[in-house]
Design goal:
CATH superfamily: Amidase signature (AS) domain
Strand order of the largest sheet: 1-3-2-6-10-7-14-15-13-11-12
Number of helices: 11
Number of domains: 1
Radius of gyration: 19 Å
Structural class: alpha/beta
Largest sheet: 11 strands, mixed
Order of helices and strands: HEEHEHEEHEHEEEEHEEHEHHEEHH
CATH class: Alpha Beta
Helix content: 25-40%
Shape: globular
Distance between the termini: 33 Å
CATH architecture: Alpha-Beta Complex
CATH topology: Amidase signature (AS) enzymes
């Protein structure tokens, strides 16, 4: 999408996902940032030196980073958007921005990316020297957060990763554990822990397994299609816990609490993705990016034709 169209769409704000719009130039890599103070402006300043430009400040999920955003609607499903970087995900999905910057405490980048079938990435290495606020999550676990990116175009995502943490794909993917065989990737197929175990148990399992390999690859989703993936909702009783499990948020909700770097690559099915995880060490992230080269991200032609047709947002209404 060219800059003029993207800018018009940002001002129109059709999904109520934009807080503020800034002027950019044709050729800039349009970037949106979640409206939270925990994302330091040093990251955007770093990216501005390599062609990225701040285009929008994006709406954040209300009430302390809730896992669903009851104020924003997923345009594909009509359900509430996964939170809390939901506005940033929507603005990339709609073509308003090429790159989105969010933060992730328990899936708040990875899950929104999955629910609208775009790319997502998080890492503790992004602005690793920043001062973090450590607080209890809804499961009572003390945790900071990871910064992360959204993109439709893998080249843009890889550029943001390189420009922010200095890491590119390596020559080999090293030791890979996976839940199934993936073409081109030598892996040890394992039976991972049930993705819907308690978050503290799954966190400790993931920490342990990532110490033993370079990359772990799993299938996740569909996210927030059959359930309501929010622990505030799920804590009431067995019925609400089951609905929460049905949301399909498994390992994506513990990547940050386990200190992992992770990427989601959208598949053909709605809300589903291949999840690649590793320890937040530069050499392992490099191997993760190499393994990711063998996973194709699926672009749905109908969805892109429908939602990226800018003029359809500006059709004039009934004339008296």
């Amino acid at each position: 999408m060219n800059y003029k169209d993207a800018h018009r769409l940002a001002i129109l704000n059709p999904y109520r996902s934009v807080v503020k719009v800034f002027d950019c130039r044709e050729g800039d890599i349009l970037t949106g940032v979640k409206n939270v103070s925990s994302i330091p402006n040093t990251l955007m300043h770093k990216l501005e030196k390599t062609g990225f430009a701040l285009h929008t400040i994006d709406k954040k999920s209300q009430l302390a980073g809730r896992a669903v955003d009851t104020e924003l609607i997923n345009p594909l499903t009509g359900h509430y958007m996964s939170g809390s970087s939901s506005g940033t995900a929507l603005n990339v999905f709609a073509g308003i921005n090429d790159l989105g910057i969010g933060n992730d405490g328990g899936g708040s980048v990875l899950a929104p990316a999955m629910c609208v079938n775009i790319l997502g990435f998080i890492s503790k290495l992004i602005e690793e020297d920043r001062v973090q606020t450590i607080k209890k999550n809804t499961d009572g676990m003390l945790s900071g957060n990871s910064l992360g990116f959204f993109a439709r175009d893998r080249k843009i995502l890889l550029k943001a990763i390189k420009d922010s943490i200095g890491v590119e794909a390596g020559e080999d993917f090293g030791i890979v554990f996976s839940d199934q065989e993936y073409p081109g990737i030598r892996s040890q197929v394992i039976e991972p822990m049930d993705a819907f175990r308690a978050r503290n148990e799954l966190t400790e399992y993931l920490k342990g397994i990532l110490e033993k390999c370079d990359v772990m690859i799993l299938q996740e989703g569909p996210v927030d299609l059959y359930g309501f993936g929010d622990s505030l909702f799920g804590h009431f009783d067995e019925r609400t816990r089951q609905i929460q499990k049905d949301s399909g948020k498994g390992y994506v909700r513990v990547c940050n609490t386990a200190g992992a770097s992770a990427m989601v690559i959208p598949g053909k099915e709605l809300g589903c993705a291949t999840l690649l995880m590793c320890e937040s060490k530069r050499e392992k992230v490099s191997r993760l990016l190499k393994a990711a080269e063998y996973i194709e991200d699926v672009h749905d032609e109908l969805i892109e034709r429908y939602f990226l047709d800018v003029e359809s947002y500006f059709n004039e209404g009934y004339q008296v």
